[in-house]
Design goal:
Number of strands: 17
Oligomer: single chain
Structural class: alpha+beta
Number of domains: 4
Helix content: 25-40%
Low-confidence stretches: 218-224
CATH class of the largest domain: Mainly Beta
CATH topology of the largest domain: Jelly Rolls
Amino acid sequence: MYLPQYIHDLHGIVFPTNPFERQLFYRDDLHQLYYWNGTGWVASGGVVLPHHLTHELGGADQVMGTVPATPLALIHRDAAGRSQIANPAINADIDNLGSRNVAVAAEAAARAAADVAEAAARVAADAAHAAQTALGIHGSAVLPTPNLLVHRDAAGRSQIVNPTIAAEIDNMGARDAAIAAEAAARAAADAAEAAARIAGDAAEAAARAAADAAHAVLTTGVHGLKGEVSFEVYRAANQSIPNTTNTKVAYDTVVEDTHSYWDGVNYRHTPGIAGKYLYISCTQLWQVADATMIYVMLFKNGVFYSFVGRFRVGGISSLAVQGSKAVSMNGSTDYVEVWVFHNHGAARDLKGGPERNWLQGILLAQT
């Protein structure tokens, strides 16, 4: 069975669009039955529905609100441009003149109460001062007035200036100042004692560390004893030496190193004890041509320091050049390396082996 659409629109919370005259509609949210009189919805009791509820039906006339603070209604200004709103309840609410005046009056009342309290306190203070300054029996006074008898106030108290000798009467201010000074002096003494203790502990620790270091030096056998610091290294494998190029000998095998001063990565000796060291080296180039010049040199800190051997070859030969040099070392940053030069005309090998290419060093004297 087909039912017209208006049958389905008999109730709801929004009035139907395009109503026809005498159409009935029950508003579920307002719990009221209405009918359309051709111009607006009228409650069944005969009251015409407020215009702001019917305007959702698409009316083209101007939407009107109310000037009084009517709940759930639009705000409308009167002829003077004013309107009304309820008192605000939270910070974001619009204020009104009455609410503002109440707040201003409350603030003024609080200020007046504070002024009254301040005035009462001032009167009480003035009275107390007057009582103290009033002269008592035989011209006595509560305040520490020179050349007058001492008079007690209503609370049984009186005042006197700060004492200067032991027999004079004390007062609370002088007493408190003395206690504070004694406390400050005690605190200063405690701080000084703590600082002295810390300094003493530090000095004791430094002395102990120095003694331990001295003991460690003595027990390692290097304190002023020559010959106790020594090392020996050699080149185990052949090393190619380019023609006419200063080349560092890369000693790759350690025979002895009493204090681990040999640097096997950079092939250098960096002693940690200052003194005079004797360095001895043996260097053999394999099958060099006649008239070839061979230089074996000590480099100190990366620059030429001294020859330990220079030789001019006569005939084809495999020469071993040996020499020595005493070098002063600072025991921290100074280091020594062995470098080789030749002008054979092509690269030549340093023959590997402990009997051919080696370097030794020993401490002669500590400085």
